[in-house]
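Help needed: design a sequence for this.
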């Protein structure tokens, strides 16, 4: 497919990636770095849990809206940078038309050849009143992810002026969404909270841990990059809604077993005979014993379908299709961007350069179905 008018647009992809440079709570003491990319990834994962629980309760959830609204709100947040939440919401309320014009203008500048259907849906969302079930699910997930961050930093900031007001505001926003079953589940603690906390732990795990790199992306942030790329590609090729859902959430959860094993780099996996198979079996056992019990039993089949062997093409009579090889290509693209961008920022090492060369070569050899060469060329033309 030609690079013109593609939803899979490097201008948009890089905007998502650059959110790894947006630091959250940067006027507070933090035990770890908290970035906008990771917050958005955590929000999407929590949205999946809340959406599934709404389906259990009999609601008709439009998963395409969930995915796209998460992307649209993410784009808006990157444009409006790291404003404090109360300021962000006030200016959007008091200057809604002007803010919408600005956000759309910035989007058009960054993605001048964007596929028009996606662009039109983005503008409708930005100018909308943000109502409906899907928006409520996303907002509930947003505030739960914010609460997760705040709970992490609270003890270090108890003497800060205004900390009590911040805590009350977050609690109030979360409780406004208690009509959603999944929000109540998480607030009550137990398995739902443990599951979303486990997702959050992937924000602690840095990628490329053996080399200095900027930005220091995490496993969870990387997973959202893969999800967003595969979804945009699925739009371009006209994939069915069920496959778009499967591909997106398979990509989002594909590294979840690493919360139990930590990341084992590919050279080690391939160099030690039998290690990859051994790790695969261990991950399956660990997921079955430690993650699946945190979810409703009736979700088990679908979750295993997504999380086990995520890079294989599967066509299941119950759960539908998932294009694992394409997810893998975008996993490689995400890793290439991490290495390439760091080098362009001036932070590199021999292992990072070798990794970048290997990843670029693989994409050029295998990535024709997703237009990898055009994406790489577009990235390398950018002034970053």
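Sure. Designed sequence:
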């Amino acid at each position: 497919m030609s690079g013109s008018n593609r939803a899979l647009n490097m201008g948009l992809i890089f905007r998502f990636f650059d959110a790894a440079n947006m630091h959250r709570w940067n006027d507070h003491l933090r035990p770890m770095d908290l970035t906008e990319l990771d917050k958005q990834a955590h929000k999407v994962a929590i949205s999946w849990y809340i959406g599934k629980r709404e389906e259990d309760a009999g609601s008709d959830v439009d998963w395409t809206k969930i995915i796209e609204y998460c992307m649209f709100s993410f784009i808006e947040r990157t444009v409006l940078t790291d404003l404090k939440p109360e300021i962000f919401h006030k200016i959007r309320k008091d200057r809604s038309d002007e803010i919408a014009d600005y956000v759309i203008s910035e989007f058009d500048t960054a993605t001048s050849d964007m596929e028009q259907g996606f662009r039109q849906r983005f503008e409708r969302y930005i100018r909308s009143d943000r109502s409906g079930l899907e928006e409520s699910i996303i907002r509930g997930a947003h505030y739960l992810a914010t609460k997760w961050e705040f709970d992490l930093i609270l003890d270090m900031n108890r003497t800060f002026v205004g900390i009590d007001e911040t805590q009350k505001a977050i609690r109030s926003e979360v409780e406004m969404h208690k009509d959603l079953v999944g929000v109540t589940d998480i607030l009550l603690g137990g398995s739902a909270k443990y599951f979303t906390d486990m997702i959050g732990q992937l924000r602690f795990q840095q990628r490329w841990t053996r080399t200095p790199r900027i930005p220091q992306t995490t496993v969870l942030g990387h997973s959202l990059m893969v999800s967003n790329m595969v979804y945009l590609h699925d739009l371009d090729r006209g994939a069915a809604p069920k496959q778009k859902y499967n591909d997106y959430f398979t990509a989002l959860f594909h590294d979840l077993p690493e919360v139990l094993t930590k990341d084992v780099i590919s050279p080690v996996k391939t160099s030690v005979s039998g290690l990859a198979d051994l790790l695969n079996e261990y991950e399956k056992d660990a997921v079955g014993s430690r993650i699946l019990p945190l979810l409703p039993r009736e979700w088990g089949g679908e979750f295993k379908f997504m999380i086990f062997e995520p890079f294989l093409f599967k066509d299941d009579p119950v759960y539908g299709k998932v294009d694992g090889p394409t997810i893998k290509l975008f996993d490689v693209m995400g890793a290439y961007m991490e290495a390439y961008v760091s080098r362009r920022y001036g932070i590199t090492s021999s292992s990072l350069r070798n990794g970048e060369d290997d990843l670029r070569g693989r994409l050029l050899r295998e990535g024709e179905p997703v237009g990898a060469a055009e994406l790489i060329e577009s990235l390398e033309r950018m002034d970053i």
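The first helix runs from residue 10 to 18.
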